[in-house]
């Protein structure tokens, strides 16, 4: 909205739309804004999809995490090569294709969601973390996809590998072990109590307010009704 109002200072049509009192319809509601964002994101996704289709083959990088509402979101990233025949050059690209809601967490559920999003027949590589549901040699996602597309080779995610190396390196010295153990203990102490967390995050004044508020069980529930 700030950008729109700034542009209105230099665009007479937009300026009239914003400032003309006789204009009741301005197309600036949150619904219209969300629709514009959706249209833009759809167009970007179409451009990326066409780019991948021209490249034909790709690798997938997939991971899931919970959002603020505790719903698992599966992030899908494609890695592919863009060829420029005029300059006889190529460019390796990684493009984010979106978050997709994941209702269940079995390897079959991951597999079905990937099949719904992608044409898996052109997949030539898979990159996941080391969790059994993803990397399992017998029923993990990588094995399920490999059994469908034999050329879709699995590679353990390099970022996760680096994380494991750093964790092992930190455990190799007692000083680092003591530091992270103390840090984890402090976190557990504060996170197990709302008033403690409030003291840490907002200060003692807000913490006192939180301590004064409590939720009581209903009479029927406490009596087993």
UniProtKB/TrEMBL annotation:
Q: Which residues form the DUF4371 domain?
A: 18-140
Q: Which organism is it from?
A: Macrosiphum euphorbiae
| A Pfam family that the UniProt record links to this protein | DUF4371
Q: Which InterPro entries match?
A: DUF4371 (IPR025398)
Q: What is the name of this protein?
A: DUF4371 domain-containing protein
